[in-house]
Amino acid sequence: MALDIEPGIAAEGNPALIKIIIKEMDGGTIPFERFMELALYHPEHGYYRKSGRIGRQGDFLTSPAIHPMFGWAIASWCEWIWQQLDEPDTFTIFEPGAGEGALGSAILDWAEARENNFSQSLRYIALEPNTEGTDSRIQWLQENPSPVLNGIVLANELFDALPTRLFEATERGPAEIHVRWDGNNFVEVRGNITVLQNVPIKGRFEINGKAWPLLETMCGLIKQGGILLADYGYEEEKLWAPWRLQGTLSCFYRHTAHENPYRHVGEQDITSHVNLSELETGLQNFGYEQLGPIPQHEFLTKLGIGNLVESARTDLGNYFERRQAFQALTDAGGLGKIQILAGLRGIKGTAPGFEGDKTYE
Ligand SMILES: C[S@@+](CC[C@H](N)C(=O)[O-])C[C@H]1O[C@@H](n2cnc3c(N)ncnc32)[C@H](O)[C@@H]1O
Protein backbone atom coordinates (compact mmCIF):
# COMPACT_ATOMS: atom_id res chain seq x y z
CA MET A 1 0.00 0.00 0.00
CA ALA A 2 1.44 3.32 -1.01
CA LEU A 3 1.41 5.93 1.74
CA ASP A 4 1.39 9.68 1.48
CA ILE A 5 5.11 10.28 1.70
CA GLU A 6 5.17 13.79 0.21
CA PRO A 7 7.47 15.86 2.47
CA GLY A 8 5.66 19.19 1.92
CA ILE A 9 7.78 22.16 2.97
CA ALA A 10 10.39 19.81 4.44
CA ALA A 11 11.55 19.36 0.84
CA GLU A 12 12.61 23.02 0.82
CA GLY A 13 14.70 23.00 4.00
CA ASN A 14 14.14 23.35 7.74
CA PRO A 15 10.31 23.29 8.10
CA ALA A 16 10.29 25.25 11.39
CA LEU A 17 12.33 28.04 9.80
CA ILE A 18 10.28 28.03 6.61
CA LYS A 19 7.08 28.47 8.66
CA ILE A 20 8.66 31.40 10.53
CA ILE A 21 9.66 33.08 7.27
CA ILE A 22 6.21 32.55 5.72
CA LYS A 23 4.62 33.99 8.86
CA GLU A 24 6.84 37.07 8.68
CA MET A 25 5.85 37.54 5.03
CA ASP A 26 2.24 37.69 6.21
CA GLY A 27 0.93 36.95 2.73
CA GLY A 28 3.21 39.58 1.18
CA THR A 29 6.95 39.88 0.56
CA ILE A 30 10.15 40.55 2.45
CA PRO A 31 13.35 42.01 0.95
CA PHE A 32 15.89 39.38 -0.11
CA GLU A 33 18.30 40.75 2.52
CA ARG A 34 15.82 39.84 5.28
CA PHE A 35 15.27 36.39 3.75
CA MET A 36 19.05 35.79 3.79
CA GLU A 37 19.30 37.09 7.35
CA LEU A 38 16.61 34.68 8.58
CA ALA A 39 18.03 31.74 6.60
CA LEU A 40 21.53 32.23 8.01
CA TYR A 41 21.00 33.91 11.37
CA HIS A 42 17.51 33.30 12.74
CA PRO A 43 18.22 33.10 16.52
CA GLU A 44 16.94 29.52 16.77
CA HIS A 45 16.90 27.93 13.34
CA GLY A 46 19.41 29.95 11.27
CA TYR A 47 22.11 28.04 9.40
CA TYR A 48 24.95 29.41 11.52
CA ARG A 49 23.25 28.60 14.82
CA LYS A 50 24.24 24.95 14.45
CA SER A 51 27.82 23.75 14.90
CA GLY A 52 29.64 21.63 12.34
CA ARG A 53 28.64 23.68 9.29
CA ILE A 54 32.24 24.35 8.21
CA GLY A 55 34.64 21.49 7.52
CA ARG A 56 34.74 18.17 5.69
CA GLN A 57 31.67 16.93 7.59
CA GLY A 58 29.78 20.16 6.79
CA ASP A 59 28.99 22.16 3.67
CA PHE A 60 32.18 24.03 2.78
CA LEU A 61 35.78 24.57 3.80
CA THR A 62 37.44 27.73 5.00
CA SER A 63 41.21 28.19 5.32
CA PRO A 64 41.36 27.62 9.11
CA ALA A 65 39.40 24.37 8.63
CA ILE A 66 41.90 23.05 6.08
CA HIS A 67 44.92 22.83 8.37
CA PRO A 68 46.46 24.82 11.29
CA MET A 69 49.20 25.93 8.84
CA PHE A 70 46.97 28.84 7.86
CA GLY A 71 46.74 29.98 11.49
CA TRP A 72 50.49 29.53 12.04
CA ALA A 73 51.21 31.85 9.12
CA ILE A 74 48.73 34.44 10.44
CA ALA A 75 50.24 34.06 13.93
CA SER A 76 53.64 35.07 12.59
CA TRP A 77 52.05 38.17 11.05
CA CYS A 78 50.47 39.00 14.42
CA GLU A 79 53.79 38.53 16.19
CA TRP A 80 55.41 40.94 13.74
CA ILE A 81 52.81 43.60 14.62
CA TRP A 82 53.43 42.94 18.35
CA GLN A 83 57.17 43.42 17.77
CA GLN A 84 56.62 46.68 15.87
CA LEU A 85 54.68 47.98 18.86
CA ASP A 86 57.72 47.25 21.09
CA GLU A 87 56.34 44.01 22.49
CA PRO A 88 53.64 45.35 24.81
CA ASP A 89 52.76 43.28 27.91
CA THR A 90 49.12 43.09 26.84
CA PHE A 91 48.22 42.42 23.25
CA THR A 92 44.68 41.53 22.20
CA ILE A 93 43.58 39.67 19.12
CA PHE A 94 39.90 40.18 18.30
CA GLU A 95 38.31 37.83 15.84
CA PRO A 96 34.80 38.81 14.75
CA GLY A 97 33.06 35.90 13.02
CA ALA A 98 35.41 33.36 14.58
CA GLY A 99 33.03 30.45 13.99
CA GLU A 100 34.11 27.63 16.27
CA GLY A 101 37.57 29.09 16.82
CA ALA A 102 39.87 27.03 14.56
CA LEU A 103 41.97 30.07 13.63
CA GLY A 104 42.32 31.19 17.25
CA SER A 105 43.41 27.75 18.41
CA ALA A 106 46.11 27.52 15.74
CA ILE A 107 47.40 31.01 16.59
CA LEU A 108 47.47 30.32 20.33
CA ASP A 109 49.25 26.97 19.82
CA TRP A 110 51.87 28.63 17.62
CA ALA A 111 52.41 31.43 20.15
CA GLU A 112 52.74 28.98 23.04
CA ALA A 113 55.53 27.22 21.23
CA ARG A 114 57.57 30.45 20.79
CA GLU A 115 60.55 31.20 23.03
CA ASN A 116 59.47 34.79 23.73
CA ASN A 117 56.86 36.80 25.61
CA PHE A 118 54.37 36.91 22.75
CA SER A 119 52.24 34.14 24.22
CA GLN A 120 52.20 35.71 27.73
CA SER A 121 51.00 39.02 26.32
CA LEU A 122 48.20 37.49 24.21
CA ARG A 123 44.50 37.71 24.91
CA TYR A 124 42.31 36.14 22.23
CA ILE A 125 38.72 37.34 21.99
CA ALA A 126 36.22 35.78 19.59
CA LEU A 127 33.35 38.15 18.74
CA GLU A 128 30.83 35.64 17.52
CA PRO A 129 27.09 36.06 18.03
CA ASN A 130 26.11 32.67 16.65
CA THR A 131 28.27 29.84 17.95
CA GLU A 132 30.72 29.17 20.72
CA GLY A 133 33.80 26.99 20.40
CA THR A 134 35.42 24.74 22.96
CA ASP A 135 38.96 26.19 23.26
CA SER A 136 39.00 27.60 26.81
CA ARG A 137 41.98 29.87 26.01
CA ILE A 138 39.64 31.91 23.79
CA GLN A 139 37.22 34.35 25.39
CA TRP A 140 33.84 34.28 23.60
CA LEU A 141 31.90 37.52 23.49
CA GLN A 142 28.61 38.32 21.81
CA GLU A 143 28.75 42.05 22.51
CA ASN A 144 31.50 44.39 21.37
CA PRO A 145 34.03 45.09 24.13
CA SER A 146 35.74 48.41 24.96
CA PRO A 147 38.66 49.35 22.72
CA VAL A 148 42.20 48.31 23.71
CA LEU A 149 45.51 50.09 23.21
CA ASN A 150 47.47 47.39 21.35
CA GLY A 151 46.10 44.63 19.23
CA ILE A 152 44.91 43.10 16.02
CA VAL A 153 41.51 42.49 14.46
CA LEU A 154 41.32 39.37 12.29
CA ALA A 155 38.39 38.25 10.20
CA ASN A 156 38.30 35.30 7.84
CA GLU A 157 35.27 35.12 5.56
CA LEU A 158 33.16 37.37 7.72
CA PHE A 159 32.04 40.02 5.23
CA ASP A 160 31.11 37.49 2.54
CA ALA A 161 28.73 35.86 5.05
CA LEU A 162 26.70 39.04 5.72
CA PRO A 163 23.13 39.29 4.39
CA THR A 164 23.05 41.48 1.29
CA ARG A 165 20.45 43.45 -0.59
CA LEU A 166 19.80 42.07 -4.06
CA PHE A 167 18.93 44.21 -7.08
CA GLU A 168 18.03 43.76 -10.69
CA ALA A 169 18.74 46.53 -13.15
CA THR A 170 15.74 47.63 -15.20
CA GLU A 171 15.31 50.36 -17.80
CA ARG A 172 13.90 52.61 -15.09
CA GLY A 173 16.71 51.88 -12.59
CA PRO A 174 17.57 49.17 -10.08
CA ALA A 175 14.65 47.22 -8.58
CA GLU A 176 15.21 45.59 -5.20
CA ILE A 177 14.45 41.87 -5.17
CA HIS A 178 11.83 40.76 -2.65
CA VAL A 179 10.76 37.21 -1.82
CA ARG A 180 7.29 35.75 -1.38
CA TRP A 181 5.83 32.30 -0.72
CA ASP A 182 3.66 31.01 -3.60
CA GLY A 183 2.20 28.13 -1.62
CA ASN A 184 4.93 25.67 -2.59
CA ASN A 185 8.13 27.63 -3.01
CA PHE A 186 9.84 30.89 -2.24
CA VAL A 187 9.80 33.01 -5.38
CA GLU A 188 11.28 36.37 -6.29
CA VAL A 189 9.37 39.52 -7.12
CA ARG A 190 10.72 42.88 -8.20
CA GLY A 191 10.18 45.59 -5.62
CA ASN A 192 10.25 49.35 -6.07
CA ILE A 193 12.80 51.12 -8.21
CA THR A 194 15.54 52.54 -6.03
CA VAL A 195 17.79 55.51 -6.70
CA LEU A 196 21.41 54.31 -6.51
CA GLN A 197 24.50 55.98 -7.96
CA ASN A 198 27.16 54.20 -10.05
CA VAL A 199 25.61 50.75 -9.99
CA PRO A 200 25.33 48.28 -12.89
CA ILE A 201 22.77 49.13 -15.57
CA LYS A 202 22.31 45.49 -16.62
CA GLY A 203 21.74 42.23 -14.77
CA ARG A 204 21.64 41.47 -11.05
CA PHE A 205 23.95 42.73 -8.33
CA GLU A 206 24.22 42.79 -4.55
CA ILE A 207 24.78 45.68 -2.16
CA ASN A 208 26.08 44.81 1.27
CA GLY A 209 24.61 47.42 3.58
CA LYS A 210 26.04 45.79 6.71
CA ALA A 211 29.72 45.80 5.74
CA TRP A 212 30.49 49.48 6.35
CA PRO A 213 29.07 49.76 9.91
CA LEU A 214 30.66 46.44 10.87
CA LEU A 215 34.05 47.59 9.56
CA GLU A 216 33.70 50.85 11.47
CA THR A 217 33.08 48.93 14.71
CA MET A 218 36.03 46.63 14.01
CA CYS A 219 38.34 49.57 13.27
CA GLY A 220 37.40 51.11 16.62
CA LEU A 221 38.45 48.05 18.64
CA ILE A 222 42.16 48.93 18.77
CA LYS A 223 44.03 52.20 19.17
CA GLN A 224 47.12 50.87 17.41
CA GLY A 225 48.06 47.67 15.61
CA GLY A 226 46.61 45.95 12.58
CA ILE A 227 43.52 44.66 10.88
CA LEU A 228 43.68 41.66 8.60
CA LEU A 229 40.67 40.72 6.48
CA ALA A 230 40.34 37.68 4.21
CA ASP A 231 37.31 37.40 1.95
CA TYR A 232 36.18 36.41 -1.49
CA GLY A 233 35.67 39.68 -3.31
CA TYR A 234 36.61 42.12 -6.03
CA GLU A 235 37.22 45.81 -6.31
CA GLU A 236 34.14 47.59 -7.61
CA GLU A 237 35.24 47.76 -11.24
CA LYS A 238 35.48 43.96 -11.42
CA LEU A 239 32.59 43.23 -9.05
CA TRP A 240 30.22 45.25 -11.20
CA ALA A 241 31.84 44.54 -14.57
CA PRO A 242 29.26 44.85 -17.39
CA TRP A 243 29.62 41.16 -18.26
CA ARG A 244 28.77 39.94 -14.74
CA LEU A 245 25.03 39.70 -15.30
CA GLN A 246 24.14 37.31 -12.48
CA GLY A 247 25.89 38.98 -9.53
CA THR A 248 27.97 36.86 -7.15
CA LEU A 249 25.45 35.22 -4.85
CA SER A 250 26.18 31.53 -4.33
CA CYS A 251 25.15 28.72 -2.01
CA PHE A 252 26.97 25.73 -0.55
CA TYR A 253 25.28 22.51 0.48
CA ARG A 254 27.36 19.44 1.31
CA HIS A 255 30.32 20.74 -0.69
CA THR A 256 28.26 21.44 -3.79
CA ALA A 257 28.02 25.01 -5.05
CA HIS A 258 24.85 26.26 -6.71
CA GLU A 259 22.93 29.50 -7.13
CA ASN A 260 19.50 28.86 -5.58
CA PRO A 261 19.10 30.45 -2.11
CA TYR A 262 15.53 29.11 -1.86
CA ARG A 263 16.53 25.46 -1.57
CA HIS A 264 17.76 23.81 1.66
CA VAL A 265 16.54 26.87 3.57
CA GLY A 266 18.44 27.05 6.87
CA GLU A 267 20.53 24.05 5.83
CA GLN A 268 22.90 25.68 3.36
CA ASP A 269 25.35 28.55 3.31
CA ILE A 270 24.51 31.62 1.24
CA THR A 271 27.36 33.98 0.40
CA SER A 272 28.20 36.89 -1.86
CA HIS A 273 31.47 38.46 -2.93
CA VAL A 274 32.65 41.48 -1.00
CA ASN A 275 33.01 44.96 -2.48
CA LEU A 276 36.72 45.43 -1.69
CA SER A 277 36.69 49.07 -2.81
CA GLU A 278 34.23 49.80 -0.02
CA LEU A 279 36.41 48.08 2.59
CA GLU A 280 39.51 49.93 1.31
CA THR A 281 37.76 53.29 1.60
CA GLY A 282 36.48 52.25 5.02
CA LEU A 283 39.94 51.38 6.34
CA GLN A 284 41.27 54.75 5.21
CA ASN A 285 38.25 56.59 6.55
CA PHE A 286 38.50 54.94 9.95
CA GLY A 287 42.16 55.88 10.36
CA TYR A 288 44.25 53.04 8.96
CA GLU A 289 46.97 52.82 6.33
CA GLN A 290 45.49 50.38 3.84
CA LEU A 291 47.54 47.49 2.39
CA GLY A 292 46.43 45.15 -0.37
CA PRO A 293 44.18 43.61 -1.43
CA ILE A 294 46.37 40.77 -2.62
CA PRO A 295 45.36 37.17 -3.28
CA GLN A 296 45.78 34.72 -0.41
CA HIS A 297 48.09 32.47 -2.47
CA GLU A 298 50.52 35.39 -2.83
CA PHE A 299 50.23 36.50 0.79
CA LEU A 300 50.82 33.03 2.25
CA THR A 301 53.64 32.30 -0.16
CA LYS A 302 55.40 35.53 0.82
CA LEU A 303 55.00 34.68 4.50
CA GLY A 304 56.85 31.42 3.74
CA ILE A 305 54.08 28.83 4.01
CA GLY A 306 56.03 26.63 1.60
CA ASN A 307 58.71 26.20 4.28
CA LEU A 308 56.14 24.47 6.51
CA VAL A 309 55.88 21.73 3.90
CA GLU A 310 59.63 21.34 3.50
CA SER A 311 60.26 21.24 7.26
CA ALA A 312 58.01 18.16 7.56
CA ARG A 313 59.99 16.10 5.02
CA THR A 314 61.34 13.68 7.62
CA ASP A 315 57.81 12.57 8.57
CA LEU A 316 56.11 11.38 5.41
CA GLY A 317 52.52 11.34 6.76
CA ASN A 318 52.86 14.87 8.06
CA TYR A 319 54.63 15.96 4.88
CA PHE A 320 51.84 14.77 2.57
CA GLU A 321 49.19 16.26 4.83
CA ARG A 322 50.93 19.64 4.76
CA ARG A 323 51.58 19.45 1.06
CA GLN A 324 47.90 18.82 0.38
CA ALA A 325 46.93 21.69 2.70
CA PHE A 326 49.47 23.97 1.00
CA GLN A 327 47.92 23.19 -2.38
CA ALA A 328 44.40 23.90 -1.12
CA LEU A 329 45.34 27.14 0.66
CA THR A 330 47.27 28.51 -2.30
CA ASP A 331 45.05 27.19 -5.11
CA ALA A 332 44.56 30.27 -7.28
CA GLY A 333 41.18 28.93 -8.44
CA GLY A 334 39.97 28.12 -4.90
CA LEU A 335 40.88 29.38 -1.43
CA GLY A 336 44.03 30.98 -2.85
CA LYS A 337 41.94 33.59 -4.67
CA ILE A 338 40.53 34.94 -1.41
CA GLN A 339 41.67 38.55 -1.11
CA ILE A 340 43.76 39.74 1.82
CA LEU A 341 43.29 43.33 2.87
CA ALA A 342 45.06 44.90 5.82
CA GLY A 343 45.05 48.12 7.77
CA LEU A 344 47.87 49.42 9.97
CA ARG A 345 47.72 52.09 12.65
CA GLY A 346 50.79 53.26 14.57
CA ILE A 347 53.05 50.78 12.77
CA LYS A 348 56.09 51.65 10.66
CA GLY A 349 57.73 49.40 8.11
CA THR A 350 56.65 47.08 5.36
CA ALA A 351 54.15 44.58 6.69
CA PRO A 352 55.13 40.98 5.86
CA GLY A 353 53.22 39.52 2.95
CA PHE A 354 52.61 42.92 1.35
CA GLU A 355 56.13 43.58 0.05
CA GLY A 356 55.90 44.77 -3.56
CA ASP A 357 52.24 45.69 -3.11
CA LYS A 358 51.25 48.91 -4.88
CA THR A 359 50.80 50.53 -1.47
CA TYR A 360 54.57 50.43 -0.94
CA GLU A 361 55.63 51.63 -4.38
C1 LIG B 1 31.73 31.93 6.74
S1 LIG B 1 31.73 31.86 8.48
C2 LIG B 1 33.46 31.97 8.82
C3 LIG B 1 33.87 31.35 10.13
C4 LIG B 1 35.38 31.37 10.40
N1 LIG B 1 35.90 32.71 10.39
C5 LIG B 1 36.13 30.53 9.40
O1 LIG B 1 36.85 31.10 8.58
O2 LIG B 1 36.01 29.30 9.46
C6 LIG B 1 31.12 33.45 8.94
C7 LIG B 1 30.99 33.64 10.42
O3 LIG B 1 30.67 35.01 10.69
C8 LIG B 1 29.75 35.06 11.78
N2 LIG B 1 29.06 36.35 11.72
C9 LIG B 1 28.07 36.75 10.91
N3 LIG B 1 27.70 38.03 11.16
C10 LIG B 1 28.50 38.45 12.16
C11 LIG B 1 28.64 39.70 12.85
N4 LIG B 1 27.87 40.75 12.55
N5 LIG B 1 29.58 39.80 13.82
C12 LIG B 1 30.37 38.74 14.11
N6 LIG B 1 30.29 37.55 13.50
C13 LIG B 1 29.37 37.40 12.52
C14 LIG B 1 28.88 33.84 11.54
O4 LIG B 1 28.20 33.45 12.71
C15 LIG B 1 29.91 32.81 11.09
O5 LIG B 1 30.45 32.12 12.19
Summarize this structure as a short list of keywords or feature phrases.
single chain; Rossmann fold; 17 strands; 12 helices; 5-stranded antiparallel β-sheet; 30% helix; 361 residues; binds S-adenosylmethionine; alpha/beta; 7-stranded mixed β-sheet
What is this structure, in a nutshell?
Helices cover 30% and strands 25% of the residues. The chain has 361 residues and is of the alpha/beta class.
Walk me through the structure.
By secondary structure, the chain is of the alpha/beta class. It is built from 12 helices and 17 strands. The chain has helices at residues 15-25, 32-41, 63-66, 69-84, 102-112, 118-121, 211-219, 236-239, 276-285, 296-303, 305-310, 316-329; strands spanning 30-31, 91-96, 122-127, 138-141, 148-156, 165-170, 173-181, 186-193, 204-207, 222-231, 233-234, 250-253, 256-258, 269-271, 274-275, 289-295, 339-345. It has a 7-stranded mixed beta sheet with strand order 4-3-2-5-10-17-16, with helices on both faces. Strands 1, 6, 7, 8 and 9 form a 5-stranded antiparallel beta sheet that branches. Strand 12 (250-253) and strand 13 (256-258) form a beta hairpin. Helix 7 (211-219) runs parallel beside helix 9. The longest helix is centred in the first third of the chain and has 16 residues, at 69-84. The protein starts with 14 loop residues before the first helix and ends in a 16-residue tail after the last strand. S-adenosylmethionine is lined by residues 48, 54, 62, 64-65, 96-99, 102, 127-131, 156-158, 161-162, 214.
